[in-house]
Amino acid sequence: GGDEGPPFSSSPPSPGSCSLRSVRLRVRDLGLGYPSDETLVFRYCGGGCPTPPNNHRLALKALKLLGGGSEGEGNW
Q: Cβ-count burial of 75 within 10 angstroms (0-12 exposed, 13-18 middle, 19+ buried)?
């Protein structure tokens, strides 16, 4: 009893645009073995969002700016 609609619901995102999206779900629907009806809101970036920088990309960018990267490229 007491079902309050579908366990998964999300706000309608604009197609293709980078935006903060959210999904409301019950703890029991996470598949972790907890029988709780408690709900939580999971927020994430979705759509055509730019890739965040990481150490690998930053190092490659610095290497390219220094004129390196052609010697031995692809050997690692």
A: exposed
Could you read off the pLDDT of 39-55 as tens digits, one per residue?
A: 999 898 888 888 888 99
Q: Which two tokens stand for residue 64?
A: 């390219």
β-bridge pairing 19-26 and 9-10: antiparallel
CA dihedral for 31, 37, 43, 46, sign (positive or negative): positive
**Domain coordinates in residue numbering, the chain:** 9-65
13-43 residue pLDDT tens: 566 788 999 999 999 998 899 999 999 998 9
